[in-house]
Design brief:
Oligomer: single chain
Largest sheet: 5 strands, mixed
Number of helices: 12
Shape: globular
Number of strands: 13
Radius of gyration: 21 Å
Order of helices and strands: HEEEEHHEEHHHEEHEEEHEHHHHE
Length: about 325
């Protein structure tokens, strides 16, 4: 491992996973080695700093799918296609960023690399990735509502995350802006779903923006369903949300699959937080330096997600 690598990667929870060539026999505390079964092309590995090279997001997803079960791989894929990154200096520990990849780019990479280990699992998971989530909680909400019943979701596949909705003159006057961005939306069926995270209620300005967004959407004839933190933590309550959403969409929630209950427990096990990916001591130190002491959970519902590269290559 290059000198200084541990310091550079100190934000990641231990052990670190590294990809190595078959000839590499040395072991090192704090690392888990993964022998590369097939060489990646040069463009699939990028240098970051101090001699450290990491997998591009598409290769990272295949490597994740090789190691993790279906629901965790879908969660990781959604994170790669999300619009948030870790930043302990921010109020909710998250900052906005552009997506690292897209579902189409993941599918193209998988098709172009049929010999890589993990490709079969990655292909299955990639078909269920949602794009555009703005927080870990939004990823979890999206999985619960949109995954098909055979994978433990409620099958509302037409919901899109953070789609821009252009407002009419009256609605724009209510909102004070030309467009709004619901957390989940099926515009064809005039449905919006908003995650109402407790953390965002610290600020009166955010409360006002949320309220005017809902009023603007409703003035355009859209049904707005609000999901609270408590609802999102209960699969029974999310079933009620799904049924109401399905009613508006002219659909039905069908959960007769023999696998539904067991798969839904696996969905719930993914949780709406990314805390476990990061080193707790590093997080506490980073928050102290930024002047934001106290615990921040990377599950906030504010408009912000996480960057993933890996494993590290040596």
């Amino acid at each position: 491992m290059p000198a200084g690598a541990c310091d550079l990667l100190s934000f990641l929870a231990k052990p670190l996973h590294i990809a190595v060539p078959p000839a590499c026999r040395a072991s090192q505390d704090g690392f888990v080695k993964h022998v590369r079964s097939a060489p990646a092309s040069a463009e699939d590995i990028v240098a970051v700093s101090n001699g450290i090279r990491v997998s591009v997001p598409e290769l990272c997803f295949v490597q994740i799918a090789e190691q993790l079960p279906f629901h965790q791989a879908v969660k990781a894929g959604c994170a790669l296609c999300s619009t948030f990154a870790l930043d302990p200096s921010q109020p909710f520990g998250l900052a906005e960023r552009k997506p690292l990849t897209t579902q189409a780019e993941l599918a193209s990479f998988i098709d172009f690399h049929p010999g890589l280990r993990g490709v079969k699992n990655a292909r299955v998971a990639a078909g269920h990735i949602g794009e555009g989530a703005a927080s870990p909680a939004e990823i979890y909400q999206m999985m619960v509502l949109t995954l098909p019943p055979r994978w433990g979701g409620f099958g509302l596949r037409s919901l899109e995350a953070n789609r821009v909705v252009r407002l009419g003159k009256k609605a724009a006057g209510i909102a004070g802006r030309a467009y709004v961005v619901p957390d989940l939306c099926d515009f064809e069926h005039r449905l919006a779903i908003e995650y109402d995270a407790d953390a965002t209620h610290t600020y009166g300005e955010q409360l006002s923006r949320d309220a005017t967004k809902r009023m603007a959407l409703e003035s355009m004839g859209m049904k707005v369903i609000t999901v609270t933190t408590r609802q999102l933590a209960s699969l029974d309550r999310m079933r009620d949300v799904a049924k109401e959403a399905a009613r508006v969409m002219g659909a039905r929630v069908r959960t007769q699959s023999a696998r539904f209950e067991s798969e839904q427990r696996l969905v719930a096990a993914t949780r709406k937080s990314f805390d476990g990916l990061y080193d707790r001591e590093w997080l506490d130190q980073a928050r102290a330096v930024s002047g934001r002491p106290g615990r921040t959970s990377f599950a906030a519902g504010s408009s912000m997600s996480i960057g993933m590269h890996g494993p590290v290559n040596v």
